[in-house]
Write a structure and sequence with these properties.
Residues 2-84 form the GST N-terminal domain. With 205 residues, this protein is of the alpha+beta class. Helix content is 53%, strand content 8%. The longest helix has 20 residues, at 127-146. Bound molecules: glutathione. Glutathione (GSH) binds next to helix 3.
Length: 205
């Protein structure tokens, strides 16, 4: 198999989701840093040619270009039979959590982080309160999804855990707090042997 390349950046929770999945699955790969704060036109030509919105993550796998973090997670899980895709039930669980994450907690957390980064500039009045209100619902739903299990996929983490980790790793940057379920899960995720900091996942990005 040709070398697997992951284009990403340490400030991108979407890219961290994929980096974590590759690490948990033990899939050898190389990361390529893309400066997400720079003018998109300055990004590597090979990246611009393959990523339609000039966004990370971009995964090059067997000559194919894969975008959208959730879709990449599903590709990795099904191709390698890992992180939930070992069974039909685990894959279904992964799909359900990925859809929930993209619509809910994975929508409000990045926006809350961005609102703090820019001091609220460009956010209409009430937007941050609305995002915080959504997060309160999301963390309650997270607890319901987790139940008594250590991970969202049960005894071991799967693609759903990778997806939620992407931005839940930065709750303080979003100015919000976890509930007991989220806090315990975050501790268990941090303790995974394959876990790395965003800067270690993307040393040149
Ligand atoms: N829905 C996409 C979101 C990707 C995304 O928003 N990427 C951001 C970094 S988190 C990016 O590349 N921003 C750079 C830009 O838009 O110029 C996914 O799930 O992969």
């Amino acid at each position: 198999m040709a070398e697997i390349l992951l284009y990403g950046h340490a400030d991108s929770g979407h890219a961290c989701k994929v980096a974590l999945a590759l690490a948990l699955a033990g899939v050898p790969h190389r990361t390529v840093g893309v400066d997400i704060w720079a003018d998109p036109g300055t990004r590597p030509a090979a990246f611009l040619a393959a990523s339609p919105f000039a966004e990370v993550p971009l995964l090059i796998l067997d000559g194919g270009a894969y975008v959208q973090s959730g879709a990449i997670l599903l590709e990795l899980a099904t191709r390698f039979g890992v992180l939930g895709a070992e069974s039909a039930q685990g894959l279904r669980r992964g799909r359900e959590i990925l859809m929930w994450e993209a619509n809910r907690i994975g929508m409000c957390l990045p926006q809350l982080i961005e609102a703090r980064r820019v001091g609220g500039a460009g956010f209409p009045p009430g937007a941050v309160d609305w995002l915080r209100m959504r997060y309160d619902t999301d963390k309650a739903r997270f607890a319901a999804l987790l139940g008594d299990a250590p991970f969202l996929h049960g005894d071991a983490p799967g693609i759903g855990d990778c997806a939620v980790w992407g931005y839940a790793q930065w709750l303080p940057k979003a100015g919000v707090t976890p509930n007991v379920a989220l806090s315990g899960w975050l501790d268990r995720m941090r303790a995974l042997p394959a876990m790395q900091s965003p800067g270690d996942f993307f040393p040149d990005g």
